[in-house]
Design goal:
It is built from nine helices and no strands. The chain is an all-alpha fold and about 200 residues long. The protein has a domain at about 60-200: Tetracycline Repressor, domain 2 (Orthogonal Bundle). Helix 4 (about 50-75) crosses helix 5 (about 80-95). GO terms for molecular function: DNA binding. It comes from Streptomyces antimycoticus.
Length: about 200
């Protein structure tokens, strides 16, 4: 029976995650969360705690699913940071195109509501954005470009990712999203090539 309960808890958490993802924290009412999970308010509190605790658990669940995919993509091409960034964006575009999940990104959706989040929740969202930055920065580390340039490129890649989430929620066509990604990858490649050659010339 414990295995059955664990399955039910995970399924309920996935459903709650979708509510936060689709509606955002502010508009994810307890009634909507209870309806999506199939739990009454009492059971919802008993299983997950209050809304803020449930929200943070949903963020963790989101990262365990999608963050792991990003990490694998970024680590799949050691020595080739440009290809790693391309693979990262491939995963993002696949998530955006998936008809079985809400549009956009739960982290981006939550970041846009940072001013309305409680301090602990806001810090959680900022921490997840920082984590994404660190992952991208690690993938760029194989380049011999100046470290400051790599830091700036990592920030740029994360910014493009968040922009894709916002654009997808606004109904931007896939072709346009892919155009954004192509230009972003070209920017990364050109910047790395230019700064690497400049460094070699100075050396």
């Amino acid at each position: 029976m414990s295995g059955r309960k664990q399955f039910d808890v995970e399924r309920a958490l996935d459903q709650a995650m979708r509510v936060f993802w689709q509606r955002g924290y502010a508009d994810a009412s307890l009634d909507a969360l209870a309806s999506a999970t199939g739990l009454g308010r009492g059971s919802l509190y008993g299983t997950f705690g209050n809304k803020d605790t449930l929200f943070r658990q949903c963020l963790d669940r989101y990262v365990s699913i999608y963050g792991a995919r990003y990490e694998r993509a970024l680590a799949a091409y050691p020595g080739d940071p440009v290809r790693a960034v391309e693979a990262f964006f491939d995963v993002i575009l696949a998530r955006i195109a998936d008809p079985d999940v809400p549009t956009g990104c739960l982290i981006a959706q939550s970041a846009t509501q940072s001013l309305t989040l409680k301090e602990e929740n806001g810090a959680k969202v900022r921490g997840l954005l920082d984590l994404q930055h660190r992952r991208v920065r690690e993938a760029l580390a194989d380049s011999s470009a100046d470290p400051q340039v790599l830091d700036e490129l990592a920030t740029y890649v994360v910014a493009v990712n968040q922009s894709l989430a916002v654009l997808s929620r606004a109904g931007t066509p896939d072709a346009q999203l892919r155009s954004v990604v192509r230009l972003a990858c070209t920017t990364v490649a050109d910047t790395l090539a230019r700064t690497t050659s400049e460094g070699a010339a100075r050396g």
